[in-house]
Design goal:
By secondary structure, the protein is of the alpha+beta class. The protein has 2 domains: about 55 residues; about 90 residues, no CATH class. The protein is built from 4 helices and 4 strands. The longest helix is centred in the first third of the chain and has 29 residues. The protein is flat, with a radius of gyration of 30 Å.
Length: about 160
């Protein structure tokens, strides 16, 4: 994903430079220069958005280095109050309120919006769809046979 963003930024930068270079042509009609300037502004806006996306994907000190979102020193280091992002969790320890703490699963950094990769995602079982569908059909056929067999026995 990162390489795709870098390639897109490089391509749009080249297009923007071409638009500015072409607009610098003294013999070009004013209407074409205006159109090229509008193209350059659109490319510049797209470049800004892509650069911001690349920056967000890098993350920040809070999600990459577990920098404290909040920190207050306690009487001892062990009794400090803090809040930080640890992997895909928000960890909170508040000694001022009687040693209350919690961990909360979060998907995005609260400071930069970066998606947090979960190190603890359970493996999802892979479903063999053909076997699953075949089993469902087999169950339906058995249920149908059982229902019809019961109806025949009760009617006799």
């Amino acid at each position: 994903m990162r390489n795709d963003l870098q390639a897109a930024v490089a391509h749009l930068e080249a297009m923007a430079q071409n638009a500015i270079g072409a607009a610098a042509d003294a013999d070009m009609p004013e209407q074409q220069k205006t159109a090229l300037w509008a193209e350059y502004k659109a490319l510049d806006t797209a470049l800004t958005a892509l650069r911001e996306k690349a920056e967000r994907e890098r993350g920040c000190a809070y999600c990459n280095e577990s920098k404290h979102l909040y920190h207050e020193a306690g009487p001892t280091t062990r009794m400090d109050s803090y809040m930080c992002v640890c992997d895909d969790q928000l960890e909170v320890e508040l000694w001022q309120s009687g040693n209350s703490g919690c961990l909360a699963k979060i998907n995005f950094c609260p400071m930069c919006g970066n998606a947090l990769p979960s190190k603890y995602k359970p493996e999802q079982p892979k479903i063999e769809w053909d076997a699953f569908i075949e089993a469902q059909i087999q169950k339906a056929v058995e249920n149908h046979r059982n229902n019809n067999g019961e109806d025949d026995n009760h009617g006799a």
